[in-house]
Amino acid sequence: MSLAISAGVDHHSDLDFLQLAQRAPDFLRQQVEAYPAYPIPLITAAESSELWATYEKLIYSCLRIGDDKSAHLCLERLIKRFGASNERVMGLRGLYQEAVAEDDAVFKTIYAEYGRILTDDPTNMPIMKRRIALLQSLGMQSEAIEALAELLQISPTDAEAWTELSSLYLTQAMYSQASYCLEEALLVYPNAWNVNARLGEIHFLSSFSPGDANETSIERALTEAIRRYCRSIELCDGYLRGYYGLKISTDRFLETCDQDNRSVTRVAKDSASSTRLTLGVVRELNRKATEELQKIVDQKAIRDERYEGYEESEIISAKALLDHGSQSV
After folding, report:
1. Please, which of 20, 189, 207, 229 could form a disulfide with 221 given CB 3.0 to 4.6 Å?
2. Does the predicted model carry a pTM greater than 0.90?
3. pLDDT higher than 80, residue 264
4. What separation in angstroms does the CA of 116 have from each of 22, 86, 141, 225?
5. How far apart are CA 146 and CA 164, in angstroms?
6. What is residue 306's DSSP assignment?
């Protein structure tokens, strides 16, 4: 499903999901198979929130690799412990049903069930999110946007929902709406470097918009993109995605602007602040981004342990960008 599955599940790579799912059979054998609805102190084994969080993560991981049996066992144990009417469990049950559904007819049945649940409890957040994810899976983008807007009226500080709504707007090339949503997400998590980088991407993409392609609008979009990428790097030292975005944005800025030393000021009419950039500053930022990307690629190539956190696909993309830049010189 395209909607982020849960705020309680951290981002994992495909390898992380595979390794976690492979542990599922052993983990399930080691755990007690039945838990009373009301644990009895001194008799029932002590529980922890980490245990149930592990069950939840295993459901996601097992479904992702196609181990439906293990996912179902994890779901059953959560139902036994917390009950089928628990909102979080209801959301997990819906996720499982969607994952094993074989055709659109089953999806529509699940969608109707979500509707019935929300009729009884319009504020059931996990089911609202599953319903939105299902709308996206069925290709009903406009309906998904409307449903997300309704969710945000109930929970305006849900950063996950704001970022998802931004992604939906972006698929429709509605750049101003997409950036507005991420601005709202940043009000909740102002130090989220990945959201700042994503906002930079939206402004960068908007500079290619044919409906607003005059020089002023392009430079304004690129100026904002550069500012957002710089902020993401400031918040996360060595952030490859931030340096990558900074390089492509400054590359395009330099290609677009007249090649002189004039100062470039792009100010929205309704904004009280301005962002000033000179071509000299942009060139320096471009040089810095290139150096940092080259450093990351080189250190990764010699297997420096300090650079092991980067995905291989990120390194390949960075190297391709650097090679393209060297060919253009």
Report:
1. 207
2. no
3. no
4. 36, 16, 21, 43
5. 12
6. G
